[in-house]
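Work Package 4 report. The design task specified in the project plan requires that, given a folded chain encoded as structure tokens, an amino acid be chosen for each position. We show below one input record used in the internal validation round.
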């Protein structure tokens, strides 16, 4: 069958398998073969994304590296938690279990994007011996939580539990691709069409649903404590590569609640940081400029 030129054609096709981690079945993608000369490169996606999102970067790698990516619980083809909400420590627990399964007793090169970047930063401080090289792609963290807002925050969460969490369905896969392009206008149409098939599934004829547990949309009852996060960051021993898109707008969402200067102060508390900016890229820089991101990963982890 001839390939459709309107849909992105992967250069490296991953093997797909499922691992039961902490009682939930997690979908894992794997490219290349394990090598004694180099640890695996473990890639972890962001919120409302999937492991397949890294396909473009993997295809852009010059070397045939052993690469592993996992759908977080409640995303992609991994099991949902079954709870009313998702708790950040569970992601660390799942990551710890993943590394025990794919690289027992060994250090890995660990990469996280956005939410995944925040997770790998905390994990690298808690388990510094498990990380050889650490890469954070636009995982800025969140504004520090005001303790006085705790009652209102909990009330907001309780109110959200009274209504079913829902994600908008789409009548066709093309609508999912259009939604991806609307969120990120830099995403080429062929990649959007390819990614849409990994980002959604048709549960009934004419109804495509996003592969994400709607419970992820609920507000989190647990406040973000910057002091606790930074206590982890200060314990990171692996060299860190921080990468952001030159056109990122992520910090503008928080305005004066989390100014860029505060993030710079946080990042300065990590003992070894190399900072890079990818031109003509926004928050989804691994989609916008996969060749540039792949080159940075290879230079940093070789």
């Amino acid at each position: 069958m001839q390939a459709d030129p309107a849909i992105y054609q992967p250069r490296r096709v991953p093997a797909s398998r499922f691992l039961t981690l902490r009682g939930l079945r997690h979908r894992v993608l794997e490219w290349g073969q394990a090598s004694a000369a180099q640890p695996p490169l473990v890639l972890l996606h962001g919120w409302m994304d999937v492991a397949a999102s890294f396909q473009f970067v993997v295809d852009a790698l010059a070397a045939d590296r052993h690469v592993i990516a996992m759908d977080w619980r409640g995303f992609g083809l991994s099991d949902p938690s079954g709870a009313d909400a998702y708790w950040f420590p569970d992601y660390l627990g799942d990551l710890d279990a993943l590394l025990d399964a794919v690289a027992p007793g060994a250090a890995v090169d660990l990469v996280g994007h956005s939410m995944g970047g925040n997770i790998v930063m905390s994990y690298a401080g808690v388990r510094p011996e498990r990380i050889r090289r650490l890469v954070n792609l636009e995982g800025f963290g969140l504004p520090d939580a005001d303790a006085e807002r705790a009652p209102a925050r909990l009330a907001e969460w309780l109110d959200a539990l009274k209504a079913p969490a829902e994600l908008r369905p789409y009548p066709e896969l093309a609508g999912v691709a259009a939604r991806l392009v609307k969120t990120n206008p830099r995403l080429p149409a062929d990649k959007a069409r390819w990614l849409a098939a990994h980002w959604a599934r048709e549960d009934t004829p004419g109804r495509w649903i996003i592969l994400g547990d709607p419970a992820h949309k609920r507000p989190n009852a647990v406040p973000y404590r910057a002091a606790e996060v930074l206590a982890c960051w200060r314990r990171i021993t692996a060299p860190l590569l921080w990468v952001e898109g030159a056109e990122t707008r992520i910090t503008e969402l928080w305005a004066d609640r989390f100014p860029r200067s505060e993030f710079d102060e946080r990042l300065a508390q990590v003992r070894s940081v190399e900072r890079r900016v990818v031109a003509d890229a926004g928050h989804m820089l691994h989609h916008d400029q996969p060749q540039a991101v792949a080159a940075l990963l290879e230079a940093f982890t070789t």
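The beta strands are 15-21, 24-31, 41-44, 67-70, 108-113, 131-137, 200-204, 207-210, 240-245, 273-278. Validation will be extended to a larger panel in the next phase.
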